[in-house]
Amino acid sequence: MKADLLTMGTALMAAVVATGPGRNGSRLLRPAIDSISLEPTSDARGASGVAVLTRSPSPFGMSLTPDGHLRYDVHLHVSGLPADPRVYDGATAYVAWATVPDLSLARRLGPVAADGSSSGEVDWNKFIVLVTAEKTSVQPGTKPGAKPGAKPAAEPHWSGTILLKGVSPSTWMQRYGSHILNNGGNPQW
Fold it and tell me: N or C: fewer beta carbons within 10 Å in the chain?
């Protein structure tokens, strides 16, 4: 499982202890800020993954939104999920999502392919990456349970079981208690 991720060119080390001459034994390297470790929820024990962040291409060196936010391409590699997503309440596909820390906005990154890969774009400073088991009737831009012909939602939102989750490196820079995933869903600003 870990070998598969490494062969895809992804370094999955939260911290590496490296030895070298003249360093008195070892030095601690910082965690990678261009990758997000995806941790399993209780519904997906044994699953794992990584989301690698790269800057979106631009002729100017950095791709920005009109209001000045950096654009990132998010490349996911997941493993350990059952081959058939129907084990999760009739789901038919695994889907990758990005959401802001208070979960008020979500963006569908794309379906997870059979090889465990998915990709999309994010332009938020702080965000959470999720992988869910979804029914194919939930398409980008529609709300789950919407009537046929209904006006599309402003942003899509997941409706299936959350299987993997991980937070962007910039999310580390906030109080632990204010993060909605760490306090039982009650924001404490």
Answer: C
